[in-house]
Amino acid sequence: MSKKFKRFRKKVMGFIFFNSIIQWVLALLIAGVIWFIYLTSKRKYYNIDIVKKFRGKPVIFVFYHGRSAMLSPLIKSMKIPAYCITSQHADGRFMAKLQRLFGLRAIYGSGTKGALNVLREGVYVTREKKSSIVVSVDGPSGPAFACHEGALYFAKMSGAPIIPCCFSASRAKMLNRWDRYLIPKLFGTITCGIGEPIYVDARAKGEEFEKKRLEVEKAMLEQLRKMDAEFNLPVVEYGITASEYKKRFKVQK
């Protein structure tokens, strides 16, 4: 791929991601595709009674970045008002538009930029609005399937439980990325797993807080492994970052 073509592609992508009208058009198209896949697939839920138990109460749904493709319709089908944490960058604002089409409102920020404001707004949303929060625990760049601390701070300060949420599919494609992003195909079976609630004590800190983080990480990874094993999907690698994966991919090429 020539440098000239790369520069042209960068300009085109920049125009797309910074143009609000184009973002909305793309969001509508992608939402349509997601709904088409969702509605033409068989759907099976595990532990859905946990969601029913907390209906009307705020919870913190945690998921992996690579398992977000079907998250929006699954959350919407549960009829739970929720906010989704997304980055302040152009791609994050595009994702916010897409999530809005499924009823999820956005809280803008990340672990590196605007983290304090995100925490404040998230706690306000759970305490005052009694709405749930949806958080990607491994962030936009990894490490893959590791659990960052953000969701635990929400739980610690709001008192809301953390509930692992994951999907898998019988017919799917894993993208060649660090997070092995999973895209289900038409006319397959989509499973949605709901994990047991995990609470974080308001006084937890230091070693106790780290133990709780590892508990969430272990629960989520076991959930994903078990669900993928049902469909004999490849075992995804734990702990690799986006930059590490790019370097490895260049070496392999």
Mass-distribution shape: globular
The CATH homologous superfamily corresponds to Tetrapyrrole methylase, N-terminal domain
Strand order of the largest sheet: 1-9-6-2-5-3-4
What portion of the residues fall into strands of 2 or more residues? 15-25%
User: What structural class results from the helix and strand content?
Assistant: alpha/beta
Give the CATH architecture: 3-Layer(aba) Sandwich
Distance between the termini: 13 Å
In CATH terms, what is the fold-level topology? Answer: Cobalt-precorrin-4 Transmethylase, domain 1
Order of helices and strands: HHEHEHEHEHEHEEEEHH
Spans of at least 5 consecutive residues whose pLDDT stays below 50 are: none
* Helical residues, percent: 40-55%
Total helices: the number is 9
What key attributes describe this structure?
253 residues; alpha/beta; Cobalt-precorrin-4 Transmethylase, domain 1; 7-stranded mixed sheet; 9 helices; 9 strands
Secondary-structure blueprint of this entry?
Blueprint lengths: L2 H16 L1 H20 L2 E5 L1 H6 L6 E4 L7 H7 L4 E5 L3 H11 L4 E4 L6 H13 L4 E5 L13 H9 L3 E8 L2 E3 L7 E3 L4 E6 L11 H25 L11 H11 L1
Parallel strand pairs: 1-9, 2-5, 2-6, 3-4, 3-5
Antiparallel strand pairs: 6-9, 7-8
Helix pairs in contact: 2-5, 6-7
Polypeptide structure, described:
With 253 residues, the chain is an alpha/beta fold. It has 9 helices and 9 strands. It has helices at 3-18, 20-39, 48-53, 71-77, 90-100, 115-127, 150-158, 206-230, 242-252; strands at 42-46, 60-63, 82-86, 105-108, 132-136, 162-169, 172-174, 182-184, 189-194. A 7-stranded mixed beta sheet has the order 1-9-6-2-5-3-4, with helices on both faces. Strand 3, helix 5 (90-100) and strand 4 form a beta-alpha-beta unit. The longest helix has 25 residues, at 206-230. It is globular.
